[in-house]
Structures are given as C-alpha cells and as structure tokens.
Write a structure and sequence with these properties.
Blueprint: E1 2-9, H1 15-22, E2 31-35, E3 48-51, E4 55-58, E5 63-66, H2 71-84, E6 92-96, H3 104-112, H4 114-117, E7 120-130, H5 134-140, H6 142-149, E8 153-157, H7 166-176, E9 182-185, H8 210-213, H9 216-223, E10 227-229, E11 234-241, H10 247-261, E12 265-272, E13 282-287, E14 290-291, E15 295-296, E16 307-314, H11 318-349
Parallel strand pairs: 1-6, 1-7, 2-5, 2-6, 7-8, 8-9
Antiparallel strand pairs: 3-4, 4-5, 10-11, 11-16, 12-13, 12-16, 13-14, 13-15
Helix pairs in contact: 5-6, 10-11
C-alpha cells in the first residue's frame, strides 16, 4: 500500500514553503506530490528535470502533478501510470490543498473509494499555522479551525518573526487539538520523518505507534476534563471504557455517530477492545460522517487493554457520547438475552 499524506493550512500559513523545502530532502525521493497548480509551489528551475502538460519530474526523483477534475481521478491516473512504468515508481504521495480547503472531502475519498483503497492508504494530515496572523485567522475563518482540528501534526510557522505570538498560538492550538504534536519550522525547515508515518497507514504493522497515534488520551485522561475554547466551540475528549464492546455495539456506535453528528464530529480515532476478539484490538478512525473500516492489530501494543476513543468536534458533549455507548451496549445485551430465551424451550423440547 502507498501511504498518502495531506498537507493543509490557511492562506499564507507557509505550507508551500514547507513543501518546497521537503522536496529538497533526499528522504523525499520517490515521492509523488499532488498540488493545485504548479505556480503555487515555487519550484526552482534547477529542480525540474522534465515536464509535460500535467507532470513535472524533479531531479531528486520526485514527481509533481496538478489536480485535474478531482483528486480521485488524479490518484487513479497516477496509479495507472505507475503500474505501466510511464512514471517513476513512487513510494509515497503528498497532497497539498488550497488554503481555503476543508481537508475532510480529501480524507473521505481516501477512506471510501474502493479502487483507491486497493493502492493507497491514508497516512495522516499535516497542518501549517502562522504564528503571526494565526490567532485572527482561527477567530475569523472556520476553514482554519477545521484544518487544525483534524491534524495529526501541526507545524507552527513564522515563529522567528518579531511580531510572532508563539506562546499564545501554542495555547490556542492545544485547546483545539491537544493530541497533535506541535512542531516548529523556520523558513519551512523540518525533517520529513517528523511529519510522515503518523496516521492510520499500516497500523497493523506499527504496534508500538498506536499509543503515539492516540496521544490525546494522556492529556485528556490525566486532566479529567474536556478541552474547550469558547470562541471555537471545539471540544476534544477521550472516552475510556474498562469493559469490552461487542462487535455489533461498535458497528451501531459508528453508524449512530455518522447519522447524528455529521459535520460536527471533525475527527474520531481509537483503539477498541472487542469482546469477540479479546487478543486483537480494533483501530478505528473517522472524519465527520465517514468511517474507515476497522484495522485489526495482531496483538495489543501494551498491557493496557482498555478501549480508548478520542473525539474532536464542534459542540460535542462527552456525556452524550458516553450515554450513547451505554445505551447501545444495553440494547445489544437485551437482544442477546431475548434470543437466548427464545432458543431455550426448543433445546428442552429436543
């Protein structure tokens, strides 16, 4: 499977500078980069080796292309060309969004398109935030809030400028998305290893990384309170459950969340102790109303076998989520008892 990472961030937040620096790193060779237009990334002429109407091949082995009618078609075309050997055998894809883009539709496409899922797997979301104007941007633009809330990594830029509000930005971002590691990049300089391999990609093969992927849990549980910012209406919390969930309860929960929360549930991820598979936890991941099929780990990554589910949403109540889980669990238990009672006379009669 080829991991796909999404780099997003509001207008002027420095994502194109970040991407330009990343493309010069040898670790980024054999990477395909999908951008909205070539001019936005400011590629140096000496980096460009060959080009045609839609592809630019770079001297470091990277391949750039622009989004055509939509991302699904572009990714499909890239995969077909890779299989045919007409483009380099890239091993990673990075998608750079426009500054005004809500990253959710991109994540939905990667999570739900069956053809794409045979080739690609979502890795994670990297969001750039400007330390100079970022506070005002978060106050005035809902797109910026969503970009920060769904991030697996947040990169704070322009911290070296005199007018940077670095400490205030760190505090604000911690209320929006406390689980995302907050990194700093000056003039786009940051190691690719700090940004990638941070999401759902190959979760079954990265046992030790699951706790890092659920880093929010430590902050949420230790603090024993919901993180909330009155201007953002963004809440983030972790639901911890000692008792296993039945598989049908988990399925009903994901369906209920999709139906009742919709766009207000910006992101959800977790590790779940499923009663029918006590030795193999399920890793779950959702963005708004779309949920990835659970990924089953071969074993628990530690001695902690509790279910832990992280929620980041708009005006989302922890008490409601916990009550929903309890209600569904009770209904499933009652149904199991009813079916058992209905079968019992037949057994006696036999």
């Amino acid at each position: 499977m080829i991991p796909v990472s999404v780099i997003t961030g509001f207008l002027g937040s420095g994502k194109t500078t970040l991407l330009g620096r990343l493309l010069r790193d040898p670790a980024m060779s054999r990477t395909a980069v999908i951008i909205n237009e070539f001019g936005a990334i400011g590629l140096d002429h000496e980096l460009i080796e060959t080009s045609d109407e839609s592809f630019i091949q770079l001297s470091n082995g990277c391949l750039c292309c622009n989004v055509r009618s939509d991302l699904v078609l572009t990714l499909g075309d890239l995969a077909a060309r890779r299989a045919a050997g007409t483009v380099p055998q890239f091993e990673r894809v990075v998608v750079e969004t426009t500054g005004l883009a809500d990253p959710a539709p991109i994540l939905h496409a990667l999570m739900t398109d069956r053809t794409l899922s045979e080739v690609y797997a979502l890795d994670g979301v990297v969001t750039t935030v400007d330390a100079v104007t970022g506070l005002a941007t978060l106050d005035n633009h809902a797109e910026s809030l969503r970009q920060a809330a769904v991030a697996d990594r947040i990169v704070l830029t322009k911290t070296d400028m005199p007018e940077a509000q670095t400490d205030a930005m760190r505090l604000r971002l911690a209320t929006i998305n406390p689980g995302a590691p907050l990194l700093t990049a000056v003039s786009g300089a940051i190691a690719p290893s700090a940004l990638f391999d941070c999401g759902l990609y190959d979760a079954a093969g990265k046992q030790a990384d699951v706790h890092a992927w659920l880093a929010h849990e430590a902050a949420a549980v230790a603090g024993s309170h919901v993180h909330h910012h009155h201007q953002d209406n963004i809440t983030s919390f972790c639901v911890v459950r000692e008792q296993p969930l039945r598989a049908v309860t988990l399925a009903l929960l994901l369906s209920a969340l999709a139906e009742n929360c919709g766009a207000d549930l910006l992101r959800m991820k977790g590790i779940v102790h499923v009663a029918e598979e006590p030795d193999r936890p399920a890793v779950i991941h959702g963005v708004q109303h779309v949920y990835h099929a659970p990924v089953w780990l071969e074993r628990w990554p530690s001695a902690d076998r509790r279910t832990r589910m992280v929620f980041i949403g708009r005006n989302l109540r922890e008490s409601w989520v916990k009550s929903l889980i309890d209600l569904l669990d009770a209904e499933v238990a009652d149904e199991i008892q009813r079916r058992a009672a209905a079968r019992e006379p037949e057994s006696i009669a036999g």
